[in-house]
Automatic annotation (TrEMBL), chain A:
Gene3D superfamilies: Winged helix-like DNA-binding domain superfamily/Winged helix DNA-binding domain. Residues 103-160 form the HTH luxR-type domain. The chain crosses the membrane at residues 15-37, 49-70. The keyword Transmembrane applies. Signal peptide: none annotated. The keyword Transmembrane applies. It holds the Pfam family GerE. One of its GO terms (molecular function) is DNA binding. Keywords: Membrane, Transmembrane, Transmembrane helix. This is Regulatory LuxR family protein. InterPro entries: Sig_transdc_resp-reg_C-effctor, Tscrpt_reg_LuxR_C, WH-like_DNA-bd_sf. One of its GO terms (biological process) is regulation of DNA-templated transcription.
From TrEMBL, chain B:
The chain crosses the membrane at residues 26-44, 51-69, 115-135, 147-164. It comes from the Bacteria. It is a multi-pass membrane protein. SUPFAM superfamilies: Transmembrane di-heme cytochromes (SSF81342). One of its GO terms (biological process) is respiratory electron transport chain. The keyword Nucleus does not apply. One of its GO terms (cellular component) is plasma membrane. Residues 19-180 form the Cytochrome b561 bacterial/Ni-hydrogenase domain. This is Cytochrome b. It is found in: Cell membrane. The keyword Cell membrane applies.
Length: 182, 191
């Protein structure tokens, strides 16, 4: 979870920095425009080179602000579709895991243990988390591996990794049925 | 109206939406700070008062442009000024019903437009006071002060409204203006 939160915070920092720059630049643009405006009312003319440059700078700042605003909107849109995609993938991963567990006929406690194995806990951790003896967990994992027809922990992982890397993740529950006969 | 980010369900069925982008939040708190400075700390005759006042104008101008081209909930289209809808919303509020609005609710929308317009009046009267044409004009000074009094009433109502609506809908609105995210209880519909 923490590793998934990190890019989100970095993204938020990026968006915030961009917004702060937009605001600063908008303030500068306003003061430049105001300056040009005051000079004009005091009889300045745009054919004066100094005035013309100032007016140009004001225009450039305004264009910059609007351009950065469009960039910010784009950035925020990309972040939100990334977040949606990640959630969709997470949801599909859960579905996938469930359907594999179904197809292997795991008992409820075997499902719990298998999930903890997939989350990377070792047998002692699982025993502690579930409040059972280490021997029980060892028996359960052995049962899980035999039901799944795999040789061990890393082989079990590889089933799911294979699903992640093949391109039919994204087509809903289909891949789960295909993978059921592994 | 499409939220900036899709909802996802928390453990209690509460959903979290990204509503206020960083630009909206920065403008809001800078504007509040500018008004606090000019209203309570800086004397009307100090040059800083003018600078801070013009900054407030630039903040509102930025927000107006962002209201036209910004993210979903920040756009004027997401909270159009609509007195009839505001009245309907008031009626729903009295009955304790109604959806949670991801952008401003219709009543809050009116208040936002009112506050921005009042700041513009303050800046306009402040600017004119300094021009040769209106220099020393008593009625402009009075208009400036009256606009400020109106702003004080508006901000007081604004803060009461935010507090009341946070309590009524159980959506923490103030944290939303800080973190950008609204968390809506599972039993509330969203609009
Ligand atoms: C001088 C002080 C203040 C002014 C002028 C002011 C003005 C505004 C304006 C114009 C908006 C609309 C924002 C937008 O769409 O960009 C707004 C929203 C908001 N303000 Fe303030 N505000 C002030 C102080 C405060 C304070 C002290 C709080 C917190 C207690 C607060 C909380 C909020 C919240 C929560 C919203 C969003 C309401 C919603 O969810 O619809 N404001 N304010
Ligand atoms: C957010 C915007 C502003 C707010 C909240 C604000 C608030 C106030 C308040 C409360 C006063 C009367 C109290 C005092 O004299 O100290 C005042 C006076 C004054 N303000 Fe502002 N102001 C704003 C913007 C401006 C701007 C942009 C200008 C000029 C460019 C300006 C020029 C003045 C002047 C010249 C006075 C003195 C008038 C007098 O002697 O009664 N203000 N302002």
């Amino acid at each position: 979870m923490t590793s998934l939160n990190f890019p989100k915070n970095a993204n938020e920092r990026r968006a915030f920095t961009l917004a702060a720059i937009i605001l600063l630049q908008a303030l500068c643009a306003f003061f430049f425009v105001g300056d040009v405006f005051v000079d004009m009312t005091e009889g300045g003319h745009l054919d004066d080179i100094h005035m013309a440059l100032e007016a140009l700078a004001a225009l450039a700042l305004i264009c910059g602000v609007i351009y950065l605003m469009l960039e910010l909107r784009q950035l925020l849109r990309r972040f939100s579709s990334m977040a949606t995609g990640l959630r969709a993938a997470r949801g599909e991963m859960t579905q996938l895991i469930d359907s594999f567990f179904d197809s292997w006929d795991l008992t409820p406690s075997e499902r719990d243990v298998a999930l903890l194995v997939l989350k990377g806990f070792d047998n002692e951790d699982i025993a502690r988390l579930r409040g059972t003896a280490a021997g029980t967990v060892r028996a359960q994992t052995a049962k899980i591996y035999s039901k799944a027809n795999v040789e061990g922990r890393s082989h079990l992982f590889s089933i799911f990794m294979e699903e992640l890397f093949s391109d039919h993740l994204g087509e809903g529950g289909k891949m789960a049925k295909a993978g059921g006969n592994v | 109206m499409a939220p900036a980010s899709e909802a996802f369900k928390g453990r209690s069925g509460a959903r979290t939406f990204a509503v206020w982008d960083p630009l909206v939040r920065l403008v809001h708190w800078c504007l509040a700070l500018a008004i606090l400075l000019n209203g309570a700390i800086l004397d009307g005759d100090s040059p800083l008062h003018e600078i801070v006042g013009y900054m407030a104008f630039a903040l509102v101008a930025t927000r107006v442009v962002w209201g036209l081209i910004g993210t979903g909930p920040a756009r004027f289209a997401a909270f159009p000024p609509n007195p009839a809808a505001a009245l309907r919303h008031l009626r729903l509020m009295v009955c304790g019903k109604g959806p949670v609005h991801l952008s401003h609710n219709p009543l809050g929308a009116l208040m936002a437009y009112n506050i921005w317009a009042t700041v513009l009046v303050l800046v306009a009267t402040g600017y004119l006071m300094g021009t040769l044409r209106f220099f020393g004009s008593k009625w402009l000074e009075e208009a400036h002060e009256m606009a400020f009094n109106w702003l004080l009433v508006s901000v007081a109502l604004h803060i009461c409204g935010v507090a009341f609506d946070s309590w009524r809908t159980r959506v923490a609105l103030v944290p939303a203006m800080i973190t950008g995210r609204k968390t809506v209880p599972g039993d509330r519909s969203v609009q």
